[in-house]
Amino acid sequence: MTVTDAATSPTATRGRPAASEALFRADPQIADLLAAEAERRAESIQLLAGENLTSPAVLAALTGPLIDKYAEGYPGRRHHTGCALADAAELLAIDRARALFAAPHANVQPRSVTSAMLAAYAALLRPGDGVLAMSLEHGGHLSCGSRANFSGRWFEFTGYGVREQDGLVDLDQVRDLARRHRPKAIVAGSISHPRHPDWAAFREIADEVDAYLVAAVAQTTGLVAAGAAPSPVPFADVTVAATHKLLRGPRGGLLLCTAELAERIDRAVFPFSQGGAAMNEVAGKAVALAQAATAEYRAYALRTVSGARALAEGLAEAGLRPLTGGTDTHLVTADVSPLGVSGAEAERRCAAAGLLLGKCALPYDPAPPAEASGIRLGTGTVTSQGMGPAELAEIAGLVGRLLAGDAAAPVAQRVRELAAAYADGV
Ligand SMILES: *Cc1c(COP(=O)(O)O)cnc(C)c1O
Predict the structure, then answer these.
(1) What is the pLDDT at residue 46?
(2) Is 141 annotated among the ligand-binding residues?
(3) 326 and 180, same structural domain?
(4) What is the tens place of the pLDDT at every residue in 330-362?
(5) Which residues form the domain of 93?
(6) pLDDT of residue 8
(7) 91 shares a domain with 240
(8) Is 377 one of the annotated binding-site residues?
(9) What residue's CA is closest to ligand 1, atom 6?
(10) What is the bridge-based pairing of β-strands 253-257 and 105-107?
């Protein structure tokens, strides 16, 4: 592979400088921290579901000259001068998002997924309106009604959940709650549920009660882009996506919506909830969206799913209980209580051996949230590094050994070997 190929390939990870010479001279403390962070990553296996490795081409766009440009507003309607090139970059990002997701309208300015959720609610709702969303205990994000978040403070949330017997979303309950509460919006999507929402069913329920349908697909945006997950775009009024996570772009949000809602969504982002967009991030999003349209990226996305399936099978063999019996996505949520440990203890033991995963409260979890009975893992980063189903099956076995009480040292040794074999540019 040539240097240029490596930089433009959506799945390459090579050439990641931890810190430049200028940074070492100006601020050795932060430079040292960044160098240590690069080392930490190189020595561990990163299985946190929302993380990934930003592609080298995206990193280049992020540090490019648009980082300094103020461009409040939208292409052709800016509050600042000198925006012609920023406009061109944003139009490319918008056109690529519309084409990739077959969406009538796209807004690429949200600085985070939470900001995008705020804008989606602001476009559709008034304070005090009712919203039906997956309850936080069953896998909803904080922006789905947490009292610590604007959503729970400003709107009246009702939570639906999954069935205890099979762990799948209970659509009968969703329909019943929708009929009873007549919400103004229904949100489908989760941060830890490993199956895809039934978009047609959610649309039908929303239509029956005259509610908007919001698709919260930040976790699986990359799978939708690659055609590896059913697209919510034909069904949802607003789709809230992430450009980091599986898409390997800049940390940020992406809103897709119907032509009818375009103006309201744009106004809900700027000026309602944000100031000037970060134009370097917009440029980085354009790059990530172009890369996500390639056959190479599609193969990557499919491989995150086959890797996650191997991981789920391996964890089940080791005595853990994967929720819903497996996964359709890059993430696996598993009950660790059959092995007699809590989620928090599982997270600690794995971290001590270099396996980074997150404790996770499960639906109907009898344990207090700080302890929890589950763990959540994702295959985005390790797949970007080149690992596949064979390595993930082995990693599942390593997790199982740690939770069964085996000595940490030999597992840690194997983790370091695997990490080194795939560290090329982490
Ligand atoms: C990751 C995620 C978020 C939060 O994203 P931020 O960019 O950190 O705000 C919100 N909702 C869902 C469904 C997510 O997966």
Answers:
(1) 97
(2) yes
(3) no
(4) 999 999 999 999 999 999 999 999 999 999 999
(5) 60-292
(6) 65
(7) yes
(8) no
(9) 113
(10) antiparallel
